[in-house]
Fold each of these.
Amino acid sequence: MKTEIKPEDTNRAAAFNLWMKSPMPMVTLVKTLDVSNLCKISRKKKMKFTMLMCWCVGKAAAGIEEFMTLPEDGSLFKYDSLAINTIVVNKNGGINSCDVSFVNDLLQFNDEYQHLTTKVIEEGVSVFKPESMIIGTSAMVQTELDCIVNQYTEKFANPMVMWGKYRKGIFKTMLPVSFQFHHVQMDGMQGAMFLEKLQETIKSLRI
C-alpha cells in the first residue's frame, strides 16, 4: 500500500527541502560485484541469472528503511511492499516492463518471475504494481559495460540497478553494477550500504 507522509515526520526532512526541487537530484554509484556464486546457482539449478540478480536486489533493499519511501509529484510517500521491475523483450521484438513482487522465498519469487515474464513475452503487455515501491533493473547483456547513467525524468524517480554482461575470469566472475537513486530518498551512505548488502546477499545465497 502507498501512503502520503509528511517529510518533517521522517529522517528525510532535510533532504526533501534540499533536493525535492533540484533539476537533477539523482545520484549514481558504481561497484564491481563478484557474481561467481550466482553463476554457479544459475547453472546447477537452471535458474535465470537475471532472476537471481533481481531477487538479490530485493533482498538487499528490504533491510534498508529508506527504500520504503519515495518522492513523487512534490510529495513523499511510504510503501509497505517492494517489487522488482525487469525489462522484457516481447515476442514481437519490442520491450515491456514487468513488476515482480519481492518475497523472501526465492523459489516463490522465481515462480512469479517466470509466470509474469512469460505472460509479458507472449502478450506484449506490461505488468505494473503501483501500490508497491518499485526498484527498477535493466540488464544490457549484449556487451560488457563499466558504468551506466540512466536518464532522469520526473515521471520515474525510483531507484534503478543496471548492469551489462558479466566478465568471466579464471577464478571469479565479476559484474560492474550501476545504482541510481533520488537524493531525497536516501543519501550516499545508504546507497553504499545497499551495494555492500547486495554483494553479501549474492555471496551467501544457498539453495
Amino acid sequence: MKLKKLMAALLLFACIGGQSFAQGAYVPSEENLRSRAEFADMKFGIFLHWGLYSMFAQGEWYLQNSGTHHAEYAKSADAFYPHRFDAKQWVEAFKDAGAKYVCFTSRHHEGFSMWKTDASTYNIVEATPFGRDVIAELADACHSADMRLHLYYSHLDWTREDYPAGRTGLKTGKDPKKADWKHYYDFMNQQLTELLTRYGKIGAIWFDGYWDHDSDSIPFDWQLRPQYDLIHRLQPACLIGNNHHEAIKDGEDIQIFERDLPGENTAGFVDKAAEVSRLPLETCQTMNGMWGYKVKDLNYKSVEDIVHLLINTSGKGANLLLNIGPQPNGELPAIALERLKGVGKWLREYGETIYGTTAGDVLPQSWGAMTRKGTVQYVHLTDNATAGTTLTLPLKGKVKTATVFTTGEKVPFKQTKEGTLTLTIPHHTPTIDYVLVLK
C-alpha cells in the first residue's frame, strides 16, 4: 500500500474504527502516521531481553519463579560486568541479518534499569562495576547504522515497594502495605521522559506487564492515556504498543501479539484472538524457548523455521520481532548469530517479497503464504511437497502473468471469471521457500 493511502487509512481508523468515541479520543499526528507506515514496511526486527537475570542463566522470570527476596537478588548487580558488550557489533549483526529495527528491554519486571536514570540508583551505571550506559551506546550504534530503536518498558515491578503488586510480585518479599501508586506512576513517567529526551529518536515504546492488573482482576486504573499522551508530546512520531493481550486501547499506535500470528491463540495469551485491528501489527517470538538467557536452552529454531515464521507473519500483514537473550558477559549466543547469518542470506535474495509488503489475498496455509506489493502478489511455497502439483487460490483480481521469482520461468495457470486461480507448480529441488510471482 502506498504511503499516502496507508496514512489515510490509519487516520480514519484512529478517528472511527476500534477506538473510543469519547471526547478527546487520540488522533495521531502526521508524523506519527508516517512512522506507522514506515514501521509496517520494515517486517523484521530483533528483540533483546537483557538484564541482571542473565547472570542467573535461568530466563527473565528468575526473580519471581525462584522466590528469591528482591533485596538479595539486587546484590547481584555488584557482580554484573558484561565486559564483552559491543553495541556496534550487535547492530552490525542485526543489519547483516536483514533486521530493520531493534527493541531493547530498558527495564524488565525485575526493576533494574539499563541506563543512567536519575529516578533510581538501581541502574547499570551506578549499581554495577561495569558503569556504562548500555542504552546510550546502543542508541548511538543504531542511529549511526540507520537502525530504528524501540524500547521495551515494564509497567510492573517485582522490586520496588511502591508498585501495587497484582498477580505477581509478592513472592519476592515486598510489603504490600508500602504500595503507593501515585509515587510509582510518577517514577515511571520520569523514566519515560529520560528515555525520550536523552537518546535521540526512539521509534516506539513497547509496554509489558499490564496483565498483572488486567480487566479480569480487581479493577485497576493504569492511567494509560495520560502516559501515552506524555510520550506523544515528547516525541510525536514515537509509536506506542502494549503487550496486554487485549483489544487495543485509546492512544496506542501498533498492536502486539505474543508468540502468535495475528488472530491466532495457540499460546493461550489472547482471549479474543480474532480482534485484529487495522493498526500496524507485530508478533514477537523467541529464537529458542526463553526470552532471557537460559544456559540449558539450546532449542534454537533453525534458519528454515525462522524464515517460515517470517513468511507467515508477513503473510498476515505483520512484522516479526525475533528475540535473542544476550549472555551475562555481553555477547550474543553463537548459535543465535549463526541463525541470523542464515536469515540474512535468505533476505538478501528474497527481501523484495517481504519488505514493504502487505498480506496477500490468501492468508497463511499449510503450503505457505502470500504477500502483496502493489499489483504484484508473491506466493511463498514453503512445503516442498507442492512441487509438481497444482495449487488453487481464490484471488480478488485478474492474473496476467505467473513466473518463478528466481528464474523468471513462466508458470502455467488457469483462472475462472470469479478469480479462482489454478497454478501448476514446476518440479524443483527442495528449498526453504519456492516463490512464484503473480502480476
Amino acid sequence: MEIKGLIPAMATPMHADGSLNLDGVKPLVDKLLAMGAYGVFAVGSMGEAASLSLEERMQVVRATVKAVDGRVPVLAGTGFVTTAETIRMTRMCEGEGVAAVSVITPSYWRMSQEALYRHYASVIHATTLPVFAYNLPQNTGNNLDPETVGKLYRQEGLAGAKDSCAVWENTKGYMDQVDDGFCMLVGEDTLCLEGLKYGSKGSISAPSNAYTYVMAAIYNRFVAGDLEGAQQAQDDWNFIIRRFNAVGAFPGSFKLTTSRLTSDVGPARAPVLPADEAKLNELLPELEAVAAKYRP
C-alpha cells in the first residue's frame, strides 16, 4: 500500500496509572480510519515513544497492526539513542505487518552530520523494511540537514522522511535533494498544504488524533484540484491547533482532546502534566463550530 495522505501520529492509550491500555488501541484506530486517515503512525512522539520501553513499543505496534487489519499502512517508530537499539527494534518489526519504520534522530548527544549519516545507513542496511528519517531537532537537539537526506536517499536507499522542524526551508530542502521516488511527509501541521504544493506525499500529524477529518480535507481537496478549498481547510486547521495548544503541554494536550473528541486514550505518562480540562470545555464550542464544516 502506498504511504500518502493524512497519517495521524497515533496516541498510545494508557490507564490512569500510566500503564498501557492495549484494549484502547482498536477503538482509536477504528475511529481514526472512519474519520479519513490514510494510515497510522504508532509509537512516534505523540505515541510517547520516549516514555516507553522497547517491549512496550512492540506491544503497541502489534496491537496497532492487528487493529488496522490491512486497511491502511502502519508506520512504526523504532528510533532510540543508540544505533544498536534502533536496529534491534527495527528488526523486531520485520514480519509484524508494518509498512515502514520511522527513525527519529538520536537525542541527548550532539551529532555531526557524518554521525547521523552513519546511523541511518546502518539501520537501512540492517533491515528489509523501508526506513523513514524523522527530524525533530527542537526535541532531540540534532537537525538532519537536507544534504544528508539527499545523500542517504541516493547512496543508501532511504525511503522517505518526516520533517517536523517547523522550518519550511529545511522541509523544502529535503524535497530539493530527492526525486519522486522519495516519500516526503510533512510533520509540521501548518505546512501541510505548502508541502503538498511543493511535492510532498502527505503529512504525519499529532493533533489530527482529534478532528481527523478537518486535516484530511486539506489533502483531499488538494488532490481534487480545489486549491481554494484546501487553503480554507488549512486555515481552519491552523485555528484548531492553536486552540489545542492552549489546553496544555504536548502530548498531554492532544491526549485530552483525543479522549474527548475521538476515543479514550487516558493521560500522558508522568512526568508530563495533565492538560487543562476546564480550558478545553471553554474552547469546545468554537472548535465544534469550525469542525462542523468538515464532519463526514
